[in-house]
Amino acid sequence: MSTRLVPQQLRGTAGKPLTVDAITRHIKGLLEATFSGVWVEGEITQVKQHHSGHVYLTLSHGDARLDGMVWASEARRMRYQPGPGERVVAFGHLSVWPPSGGYRLVVQRLQPAGAGARQAALAALKATLASEGLLDPSRKRPLPRLPRAVGVVTSGSGAARRDIEAVLHRRSPQIPIYLASAKVQGEGAARAIADALRAVVREPDVQVVIVGRGGGSMDDLWAFNEEAVARAIAACPVPVISAVGHETDTTLADLVADHRAATPSEAAERAVPVRDDLLADIAGLVDRLDRALSRRQVDGQHRLAALRARLERGVDGRDRRRLIEQALGRLATAVARRQRQADTRLRRLEARLSARHPATRAATARRRLDALTHRLDALAPRLTLHARRRLDGARTVLRPPPAALGPKRARLATLAARLSDLSPLAVLGRGYALATDGEGRVLRHAEQVQPTQQIEVRLAHGRLTATVDATHLPSEAS
After folding, report:
1. In the structure, how many helices (H) and strands (E) does the chain have?
2. Which CATH superfamily is domain 3-114 in?
């Protein structure tokens, strides 16, 4: 060491030598101040983990060696944990240990030496996620058959967005799309993607999310290898489809997601079904139900005819009539019970049909349109001339002239009339009535009631409670 670096009072003389403590403290100050932050490359020749969690290691290069240590708190945060024989680059500061007079490198960061450092860090992150079970196939969730809405996390100006929206509109135009635009490459892209994913699932109707972007180099796609994106996908409360790059590209987002698609277009195809196929399936099911009901009705009639024939052959006239009346009573009770069940179901279906009626949905859409129009009118004074012209064009599209709506309103009226004709209440509306006794049984024969007995008559609008004055059998009526 040059004497210029040592103060005069620390050089010592024959009459007044330096103490070991003094020179050690001076060396400690010089080394720790000079090497407060330094990168050191070398080969690990020895690694040992203390029971306290501290890690002690030795770096070698040529004939030189340097002892180092990693505090337990730092060791727990390090994803990359090399072993003996690996060449590494360590960052830290030199520290002098006075009791032994030696020095060592206190390591704060470790990474592999050479061009594969990023890949090695990616492999370490992948191993960490796998150890936590985030890559386990058993945690993959199935996609909903018909989602209420689809969330999309991608660049708002990229080709991936256009491809996804085009496929979704072609297959199921009735399903809403919620776009959460995010930066998908470069500095800060990983955080932007994670934030957009957490934002889009706040929409209550979103039941599946597509996360992705178009093709590019591995550097362009690297944001989808970041830990923030992987953990955001794993924590998503609804199934996630990852569509990053091309088929040959695989990222951590693809491994953590519930489903992986080769392209954004394929992701959109997996997310929603084809509406026309669903309508065809429903029509087929309705047809099968109609045929099954018809078969059951015919079978019931045949069984009833066979039973009547057996009764007529096996008993005399009075017993036959009594048995028939009992059978008819049981049949009437069963029919009344089925009628009550049908009435209850009919009221429920009427309520559901009323809520789904085109007029109701149109009124809801009209109120929403009026609210949006009011907001546009409020913003109009602050818009530029060009923006006002575009706003007027949008109003023309949203509120077409009455002449353009004429055919649609006529078709809606025709469909509403057909729907009304199919209603079971239409029969009552033509002047017919339904009479039941006090127990709710349908009255089909005058012998089922006695004079002074109260009955209930159901009309198209309301019910009547009546008292029977007299009964007239068919022979008497004639």
Report:
1. 16, 13
2. Nucleic acid-binding proteins (2.40.50.140)
